[in-house]
Amino acid sequence: MKFGRGKAQAPAPVALPGRGENVTLSTPGGGRIPARVTEQGADWLLVAITVPTKPLTGAQLAALVLEYNSPRGRMRLQGSFAIDDPADPDLLRLTEPRSLEVLQERSYVRYEVARPVIVYATGGQTQTFTVDISGGGFQLAGPDTLKLGEEIRFQLSLEQGKPPISGSARVVRSTPQGRRAVEFTGIGEAERRRIVRFIFECQRDERRRGLGRER
User: Nearest-CA neighbor of 202 among 136, 146, 143, 133?
Assistant: First the structure.
């Protein structure tokens, strides 16, 4: 009996950043260039550099790495970069993207910020606010009646004029001050990306204003 060779499994598709998402281009010399996704296809991206810079050389394009935040952590992609239009060298096309690595996988950046939250628990509905927030959950200022292991529903308001993020979570930690840390148990990936992007934007604004916090 002849046994055919098993087919090699195709690599898992890369989750590309969406249109309008901020990304970073890392050059071979250690440079980091802010950019934004202007168009996205199934296996390609158009990326516009958003700061004044010299046109990238062929060697720089060949070694360029694109970094962005995703629900899994900080992603790093490589592929075939090319200037999309010679008249506009700040517009780059990435084809054949492949993932190099994931930084902070399953460990999300935590950012201290107060945002309104409505908590629905066994004790009823409570209006409170976050102490800090991450892509995996947040710490609440209260209520201190929440018990460890308790399941809650929530509505988190990140930005004025935009719909709140709804989901479910579990209380995983408490503090003597009455704060409760919760871990997401039910949240859409698009909503998680909104949180990660919100944190990234807040950190970028701090750096721009020279207000970066010392850790």
Answer: 133
CATH no. of 111-209? 2.40.10.220
Section 53-60 average pLDDT: 91
33 in Cβ contact with 49 (< 8 Å): yes
What is the helix (H) or strand (E) element at residue 208, kind and residue range? helix 189-209
Q: How far is CA 164 from CA 155, 167, 206, in A?
A: 6, 10, 23
Cβ(116)–Cβ(127) under 8 Å? yes
pLDDT tens digits along 127-149? 999 999 998 899 999 898 998 88
Computed on alpha carbons and rounded to an integer, the radius of gyration of the chain in Å comes to 21
Calpha distance 43→198 (Å, rounded) = 25
Closest to 172 in 3D by CA, of 189, 191, 185: 185
Predicted structure pTM score: 0.51
Residue 6's pLDDT band (boundaries 50, 70, 90)? very low
What is the domain partition of the chain in residue ranges? 22-103, 111-209
- Per-residue confidence at 72, pLDDT binned at 50, 70, 90? low
Q: Rounded to whole angstroms, how far apart are CA atoms 213 and 44? A: 36
Task: Quickly count helices (H) and strands (E) in the chain.
Answer: 2, 13
